[in-house]
Amino acid sequence: MxxxxxxxxxxxxxxxxxxxxxxxxQLADAAxxxxxxxxxxxxxxxxxxxxxxQQVAKALRISAETLYVRAGILDEKEREELETRAVIxxxxxxNERQKQVLLQIYDSFRKENAAEAAEAAQAAEAAASASxxxxxxxxxxxxxxxxxxxxxxx
Length: 154
Fold this sequence. Notes:
The chain is mainly α. It has 7 helices and no strands. It has helices at 6-19, 24-31, 35-42, 50-60, 64-71, 76-90, 96-140.
């Protein structure tokens, strides 16, 4: 989990609030938090909870996961996975059984890809180790790598 970067979070919140053309007081009221508390978050003086971030995100009509990533509560990959799941679950054109099947397929693809990535990483590591060993062996027999005992000294 990433460390909390509340300064960056505060700057981002202020930018989002201004883009939404909301005053600090209006956003605080909409999010259900106090005006001074929200001001402290924006200035990087407070570390908001996930619940407060969710309330602020709802008031700004932005993704709570984006704020979690900015706050270091969630990493980018987790956010992408959660957003994908949320889109599937929110789709009104498919029924609940179809949603669950789709999520199971999604999970199986993610596991399969993770296993393939791990195997590829192991293969690359093994190849790098073999290459280093070959280079070390080649260097031992390379002329000029050791002082030549037969060359005359002046």
